[in-house]
Amino acid sequence: MNEKLKSARVNNLFRAILSLETIEECYDLFEDLCTASEINEMAKRVAAAHMLSEGKKYTEIADETGLSTATISRVNRCLKYGSDGYTRALSKIEYEE
Predict the structure, then answer these.
(1) What is the pLDDT of residues 50-97, one digit of tens each?
(2) Where are the alpha helices (H) located in 1-97, listed in sequence order?
(3) Looking at residue 3, what is its pLDDT?
(4) Residues 69 and 62: beta-carbon distance below 8 Å
(5) What is the CA radius of gyration of the chain?
(6) Which of 10, 15, 49, 78 is the most buried (most CB within 10 A)?
(7) Which of 97, 75, 81, 94 has its CA nearest to residue 23?
């Protein structure tokens, strides 16, 4: 975890997220917290992580998600050298296509 991010405010944000019990509750909170573009961008990054874990190529992911290859590269770097956030989260859900 990036020590620069750690704070009581961030802890409270994450506690709020962890308190949610349904997809609808997530929609409600994230619609209040983020713009539609920000939510869609995060969703694209999760999709890219899923596709990378399946062995898809950057160009295929870019075509399907609209992400830049630079962003896909960052997601890939996180998958390989990060804190396993994407991997852990994806292993816990039934991914929808």
Answers:
(1) 999 999 999 999 999 999 999 999 999 999 999 999 999 999 999 898
(2) 8-19, 23-33, 36-53, 58-65, 69-81, 85-91
(3) 85
(4) yes
(5) 14
(6) 49
(7) 94
Amino acid type, 75: V
Task: Please give the pLDDT value at position 97.
Answer: 84
Q: What are the tokens at 20?
A: 């949610």
Residue 74 burial by Cβ neighbours in a 10 Å radius (0-12, 13-18, 19+): middle
Q: Which residue has tokens 């290859």?
A: 69
pLDDT digits (tens, 9 = 90+) for 36-49: 999 999 999 999 99
d(CA 77, CA 26): 27
The number of residues making up the chain comes to 97
Amino acid, res. 84: D
Q: Measured at the alpha carbon of residue 87, what is the angle toward residues 94 and 2, in degrees to the nearest 5?
A: 135
Q: How far is CA 50 from CA 2, 3, 33, 46, 96, in A?
A: 23, 26, 24, 6, 10
